[in-house]
Specification:
Blueprint (H helix, E strand, L loop, with lengths): L2 H16 L4 H16 L1 E9 L5 E7 L3 H6 L8 H9 L3 E3 L21 E8 L2 E11 L7 H63 L6 H26 L7 H12 L6 E5 L9 H21 L4 E9 L2 E8 L17 H9 L4 E6 L5 E8 L4
Parallel strand pairs: 6-7
Antiparallel strand pairs: 1-2, 1-5, 3-4, 4-5, 7-8, 8-10, 9-10
Helix pairs in contact: 1-2, 1-5, 2-5, 5-6, 7-8, 8-9
């Protein structure tokens, strides 16, 4: 294949990746096309969080089930960190021979050869591309290195475009929220005040209308006004000030559990060690775990225990329900574990499940703190 043909393949592949609607989908597609173009068993794409860790880490070549068994996601150390800090291509015939290699966590597939390249434009690091083990068993060549460097250049443009699109969507959402607040204030609230005044005047005019009924109506209208005021304040708030405990209690209220299920919550009454956006996403994992216990476990008691210790945010959702053989769990469908796992992966965390028939179920959520 000529250089021109290779560049055409790269351009086509990255254009395909850039067509995805969300940043995460773009990243996943780039990891997939990199593995296909260079013909490797494994590929990965990491996006730095600006604090020495990883905001995203997408893999290609492993099943979701295999990835879920790995002890933990990368923290940005070892060869991954070397690409991030040195910002240059690293090519190795055997990773184990390099002093920068930290080895692999438990249940990680064994990998030997390595080719990594920074995704960088104008001294701005957009990400790091990693490939391991050629499909035919050979070592990486100069041609492979040139191909990966070219792919990284195209990938930077695709990632930059996706990030811009994502930021634009966020700004649009904030603008929409602000507009909703203004419309409520300028329209609905003023109308409600007008109704309240009219009813109050009607009461004062001496018309034959039940006094008790009108007083209740006025009070109810005033209550609605105060609720809408609170709604506006939440829309305009730039930071969610609810504590960990308050957030989990709010999740319980929104799930509307049956009265015969007791949900006990043991969580710190402190702010979460994450940005509001990150913690909102993490709360969706907790919500999924609680919802599964309510809907599927046939439990009478569900305990949610949260804690921040040893650099990790930890949550256990424990039920005394019927349980099941977790070794037979289909990770692609069972209990929404796939969705929970993938959300946890965004923050280098993990979700594990332990259950046995008639012994209930425990779901453990562990997220490292300090990086988001």
């Amino acid at each position: 294949m000529t250089v021109l043909e290779q560049l055409k393949d790269i351009s086509t592949a990255v254009m395909y990746a850039a067509e995805a609607n969300e940043l995460e989908s773009v990243l996943q597609r780039i990891a997939d096309v990199a593995r296909q173009l260079v013909k490797t068993k494994y590929a990965a794409l990491g996006i730095p969080n600006g604090q020495g860790g990883l905001r995203y880490f997408k893999t290609s070549g492993m099943t979701v089930e295999a990835e879920a068994r790995i002890a933990h996601r990368p923290f940005g150390h070892g060869l991954i960190g070397a690409i991030m800090s040195e910002r240059k291509v690293i090519r190795l015939n055997n990773m184990a021979d390099d002093s920068r290699s930290f080895g692999f966590p438990d249940n990680h597939p064994q990998m030997s050869s390595f080719l990594g390249a920074p995704i960088i434009v104008a001294n701005h690091l957009y990400g790091m591309l990693y490939l391991s083990d050629k499909a035919n068993g050979s070592v990486f060549t100069d041609e492979d290195e040139t191909l990966v460097e070219a792919l990284a250049g195209y990938a930077a443009l695709a990632i930059a475009g996706a990030q811009l699109s994502e930021n634009a969507s966020r700004f649009k959402l904030l603008e929409q929220r602000e507009n909703i607040g203004m419309e409520l204030h300028d329209g609905v609230i003023q109308s409600l005040y007008g109704i309240g005044m009219q009813v109050d005047l009607l009461r004062r005019s001496g018309a034959d209308v039940g006094e008790e009924h009108l007083s209740d109506l006025v009070n109810n209208l005033n209550d609605v006004i105060e609720e809408i005021r609170g709604f506006i304040g939440k829309l305009r708030s730039k930071r969610d000030t609810l504590t960990i405990r308050e957030n989990i209690h709010r999740l319980r209220e929104r799930l509307h559990p049956p009265q015969n299920i007791v949900i006990e919550i043991d969580a710190p009454d402190t702010l979460a060690p994450f940005s509001p956006t990150a913690f909102e996403s993490i709360c969706l994992i907790i919500n999924e775990a609680m919802s599964n216990a309510i809907r599927h476990a046939d439990a009478k008691i569900i305990r949610v225990i949260a804690d921040v210790s040893d650099g990790f945010f930890k949550v256990q959702v424990i039920d005394n329900g019927t349980g099941f053989n977790h070794k037979m769990l289909d990770h692609s469908t069972g209990l929404g574990l796939r969705n929970m796992q993938q959300r946890a992966y965004l923050y280098n965390g993990r979700v594990t499940i332990d259950s046995n028939p008639e012994e209930g179920t425990t779901i453990d959520i562990v997220i490292p703190v300090g990086a988001y």
